[in-house]
TrEMBL record:
Its EC number is 1.1.1.38. This is Malate dehydrogenase. It comes from Aeropyrum pernix (strain ATCC 700893 / DSM 11879 / JCM 9820 / NBRC 100138 / K1). GO terms for molecular function: malic enzyme activity; NAD binding; oxidoreductase activity, acting on the CH-OH group of donors, NAD or NADP as acceptor. The keyword Oxidoreductase applies. Belongs to the malic enzymes family. Keywords: Oxidoreductase. Residues 23-156 form the Malic enzyme N-terminal domain.
Length: 446
């Protein structure tokens, strides 16, 4: 999750003691009344046969007669976990559990961690396809690039349920929401501005796609990877065609942003209106003097964790007007937890067959709109905190309405209908959780 801060503030030994005490972050609880053995005639045999017969005739009935409608698989092969890199699948389980916790608390979504050893793309895709009948949606997580792009594209085509890769779409949607408000603050038109994306991994390749769909001219975007500007005359273009067609296509579409082949990041930033860096931990990855070469009132998003590519105060000293990071202890945190709980809430509630780019952009626009309308935007406040519950209801409503307009919803809803529905589901989750805490059935941290 973008924005996770280091555990150093608490201490590693303390973290392990807490994890050992709780034995995990989530559990499964019954949601139906059972007061005696006779109730099992309804919930299990023989009554359950009626539901099975109905679903066998129409599989879509599984969304109405079982928990599938609210169930999401969080699937990873542990090849790129947080800032930790490639891990054993078992070592990724705590991260997936944390994701499931956020899904439930902020979206009312039941999510199940699935960590596996099928790291070859075809085997990974086959596994997810085989799991489809059990779930209403799939959240891909912590998968190395460029495999993550191929998997998302393939599974979006093959599955009849929403598929989402949070490191791509979630971070990109949160970034787009922040950019929308940042450009309002500096008084510039996002669609007419020059934007540099530092890093060509999951988040920025998805952000490039969203910016293009939002109306930004691809030739006003410069994408820089570890070898320089993506440019049609770059010497490794032939290799990229086969190894990473996403970078290859960006190079062709952007034409290197009008720069000469081999241009540096410093040259790319000259006159740029915004920099979105999602590359490697700093500081020092982006220099103050490079920020000084940007346009009037530049926008700088330095999203690497745990340390941004340039510290916010250094960027401000160099003239940046709006600065964002991925950290929760600094202003303007770009956090994908603002996005995915509401996106899945809305997609699940309309029984969507997909999460389209249009739905993701609708989520970004709604987050930006909510911040401006309900909180007020300022240089140090372009996005709401993830604990602002109202934003999740509104994201769900925007996504459900977008899915309905785009004809991917099995059960279309208006914005107003989903706003009421999402609020009811999430508030019920909060009341249940609050009751368990109050009763001491969940031990409080001390």
């Amino acid at each position: 999750m973008a924005g996770d801060s280091s555990s150093d503030d608490i201490g590693g030994a303390r973290i392990i003691e807490i994890y050992r005490r709780y034995g995990g972050k989530i559990e499964v609880m019954p949601k139906v009344p059972v007061s005696g053995v006779e109730d099992f005639a309804i919930w299990y045999t023989p009554g359950v046969a009626e539901a099975s017969i109905r679903i066998n005739k129409d599989p879509d009935e599984s969304f109405e007669l079982t928990s599938r409608w609210n169930m999401v698989a969080i699937v990873t092969d542990a090849t790129r976990v947080l800032g930790l890199g490639k891990l054993l699948p078992e070592a990724a389980y705590p991260v997936m559990e944390g994701k499931a916790l956020i899904f439930k608390l902020f979206g009312g979504v039941d999510a199940v961690p699935i960590v596996h050893r099928r790291r070859e793309p075809g085997a990974f895709a086959s596994l997810v396809k085989d799991l489809e009948p059990s779930f209403g949606g799939v959240n891909l997580e912590d998968i190395e690039s460029p495999k993550c792009f191929y998997l998302l594209d393939f599974l979006r085509m093959e599955l009849e349920i929403p598929v989402w890769h949070d490191d791509q779409q979630g971070t990109a949607a949160a970034s787009l929401a922040g950019l929308i408000n940042a450009f309002k603050i500096v008084g510039k038109n996002l669609r007419e501005s020059r934007i540099v994306l530092l890093g060509a991994g999951a988040a920025n390749i998805a952000l490039y796609r969203f910016l293009k769909a939002y109306g930004v001219n691809p030739r006003n975007i410069v994408v820089v990877d570890s070898k320089g500007v993506l440019h049609p005359e770059r010497e490794d273009m032939d290799r990229l065609l086969f190894s990473n067609r996403y970078k290859y296509e960006i190079a062709l579409e952007t034409e290197g942003g009008g720069l000469a082949p081999g241009s540096s990041l410093e040259e790319a930033l000259r006159g740029a209106d915004a920099l979105v860096a999602a590359s490697r931990p700093g500081p020092g990855v982006v220099k103050k003097e490079w920020i000084r070469g940007m346009s009037r009132d530049p926008i700088v998003f330095a999203l690497a964790n745990p340390t941004p590519e340039i510290w916010p105060w250094e960027a401000r000293d160099a003239g940046a007007r709006v600065v964002a990071t991925g950290r929760s202890d600094l202003p303007n945190q770009v956090n994908n937890a603002l996005v995915f709980p509401g996106v899945f809430r809305g997609a699940l509630d309309v029984r969507s067959r997909a999460i389209t780019d249009g739905m993701a952009i609708a989520a970004a626009e709604e987050i930006a709109r909510y911040t401006e309308e309900e909180i007020g935007i300022e240089e140090d406040r372009i996005l709401p905190p993830i604990t602002d519950w109202q934003v999740h209801y509104r994201v769900a409503a925007a996504v459900a309405w977008a899915a309905s307009r785009e004809k991917v919803a099995r059960k279309p809803r208006t914005y107003a209908e989903e706003l009421e529905n999402a609020r009811a589901i999430i508030e019920t989750t909060r009341r249940k959780y609050g009751a368990l805490l109050s009763a001491g059935l969940i031990e409080r941290l001390v």
